[in-house]
Amino acid sequence: MLQIGLRQWLERLSSTISLFFRLLLRLKTITINTNSLVEQIYIVGPGSLNITLLTACFISMVFTMQIAKEFLYLDAASAVGAVIIIAFTRELSPVLTAVIIAGKIGSSFTAEIATMETTEQIDALYLLNTNPIDYLVFPKVVACFIMLPILSTVSLTTSIAISIFVAFIMYDIPSSIFLKSAFKALCISDFLSCLEKSICFAIIIAFVSCQWGLTSTGGAKGVGNSTTSSVVTILLTIFITDFILSYFMFQTTGSSIAQANNI
Fold it and tell me: Which InterPro entries would you find in this protein's record (predicted)?
């Protein structure tokens, strides 16, 4: 059973890569459904904004409390802003936002397409001379591609604002010192890397969730299994991709916090 499950998972993963290239080949001739595209953009963006802001708020409060407390003990209050903002910009904001979207949107995409597959609605699209890639996959990919970087930016802005507030209220760290150390350590490449990661994560979420839905079998039970497997695969792929991207992006930026501490 384990071998059968692993083989099916590998087949789905390879078919996801195939779906990616099939969509690229169809870009010149693709038929865009404007209503579906706008609907998916709303679902991924404004529809996920509340949970994104709420998560960013509480994660930033917890993270700031832990970091500020330890750095004050080490008499390094001037580096608190640098550590927190670099952590959120490079890692926490893009990854946490992607995890939220994977759980909320990725599962929704898989369940929707899997239900259509098991009820033979996908076959009906072919009979209507409508390509499922154009009608189902493309709007979801574009929506994730556009909205995930925006949501990551909003999450980052919220996290920074909450961190400044918590650091000042709970630990008497002036916002001027917080921001001074942060801006001295941060550079534009850190923000660009945040956007690059968000785009990579958006592609992973969209293609994996859609392909897992298209290859779903076994009725209602198969829909549930595909949805669960889709979210697990997306999260695992995001974490592996994040490690690879971080390894190549930040090898030469390890002295930022040390510079910020010399204020």
Answer: ABC_MlaE_roteobac (IPR003453), Permease_MalE (IPR030802)
